[in-house]
Amino acid sequence: MRELFQLDPDLIFLNHGSFGACPREVLQAQRRWQDEMEANPVAFLSRRSGALLGQARSVLGDYLGARADDLAFVPNATTGVNIVARSLQLRPGDEVLTSNHEYGACDATFRFACERSGALYKRVHIPLPYQASAFVERLMAEVTPRTRLIFVSHITSATALIFPVADLCRAARARGVLTLIDGAHAPGQLPLNIEDIGADFYTGNGHKWMCGPKGSAFLYARREHHSTLHAPVVSWGYVAEAIQADTEGSTLAFDRYTGTSILQRRLQWQGTRDISAWLALPAAIEFQRGHDWPTVRRRCHVAAVEVMHALCQRWGLEPIARDEDFGQMTAIPVPHPDAAELQRRLYDESRIEIPVTQHEGRTFVRISVQGYTTEAEVQALVEAPALQSPAQP
Ligand SMILES: Cc1ncc(COP(=O)(O)O)c(C=O)c1O
Questions:
Q1: What's the angle, vertex CA 359, arms to CA 357 and CA 360, rounded to 5?
Q2: What distance in Å separates the CA atoms of residue 224 and residue 262, rounded to the nearest whole number?
């Protein structure tokens, strides 16, 4: 499958997780949308974009198990998290609960939102080795009457763990606490049904494991929360909202501003921008469908877990979780305290592009195995000189 992607053939690319990689045919689909746009930018952006975005959203909704009306396109999961965090209207003394495994940028978003409003941002310690069965209880034990929201990843960044988010959302709902799931890594890597998960808000990336173009992501919100969310960039949708409120029942001609819900009215149009990444998401979904992605996913999971066991055995280290707690990424503990140095050596000596992450003072090589990854590439990691002996003290 490697030739279906544009990746440099001289590179051993084991870092799909950071920014994804997009198949040629999906990039071609995006290019075709851009060509159509440039043939008549006014027709495309003024007259067609509303309907085109609606079609793309509808295909995405079917894929994600969500109503299209409950989805808005955003450029990335960071934006999705920001929209929710900054719309919450936190008050002094409110609490937001999270784990100590969250992605730095999203952690920063909530720290900012909480500091600004005098709310408490509480990071619950989820220890390693990870025990999935204790996760919900650990978080829920920290809920107080002031807890407004629980925010966690579906799949964590540095530690690559799958959190049991459906169980968490159920428990949180029973206590009247809102949930935001950061699904940056989940769509495409896990079979997903967002409505079954039951989160109040869920944001996910198309450009990571769905193999969509960069800048393709979504924010889902349950219908009762649409009117609480605000766009990071206020634009024409807010004017349309005012007009619509004045002329009840009238259909506005400019669906590029309005979409089909308040959520979309506020988020869909944020000034002139390139919408081709979102329009190409159906091509990404079709690409995965055409290549039997459930089988690809299983094969990749097995390879990611096998390499973890092989390297753990070499160092006499225990994996940080059970095999089923990982998807197509595993976080492999290594006895190398200098993460940057190990990452540099893997790249410079072996041309292996792979992140070396740190969590609570421990170092992990986080491998991503995607459909294009070959056994020889995974083996190259096992044989890399930088991983043959522990780092010298
Ligand atoms: C768990 C998690 N959340 C959010 C993000 C941010 O994704 P993006 O850069 O597309 O906003 C990442 C990126 O790797 C991530 O790992």
A1: 150
A2: 10
Q: What angle do CA 334, 335, 340 make, to 5 degrees?
A: 75
Tell me the C-alpha distance between 281 and 26, whole Å: 8
184 Cβ inside 6 Å of ligand 1: yes
pLDDT in tens, the chain (393 residues): 999 999 999 999 999 999 999 999 999 999 999 999 999 999 999 899 999 999 999 999 999 999 999 999 999 999 999 999 999 999 999 999 999 999 999 999 999 999 999 999 999 999 999 999 999 999 999 999 999 999 999 999 999 999 999 999 999 999 999 999 999 999 999 999 999 999 999 999 999 999 999 999 999 999 999 999 999 999 988 886 666 555 444 444 567 777 889 999 999 999 999 999 999 999 999 999 999 999 999 999 999 999 999 999 999 999 999 999 999 999 999 999 999 999 999 999 999 999 999 999 999 999 999 999 999 999 999 999 999 988 765
Domains in the chain (CATH in brackets) are: 2-21+292-387 (3.90.1150.10), 25-286 (3.40.640.10)
Between the CA of 301 and the centroid of ligand 1 the distance, in Å, is 20
Q: How many Å lie between the centroid of ligand 1 and the Cα of residue 366?
A: 14
Structure tokens at 121: 């941002």
Please tell me the residue having the least CA distance from ligand 1 atom 7. 77
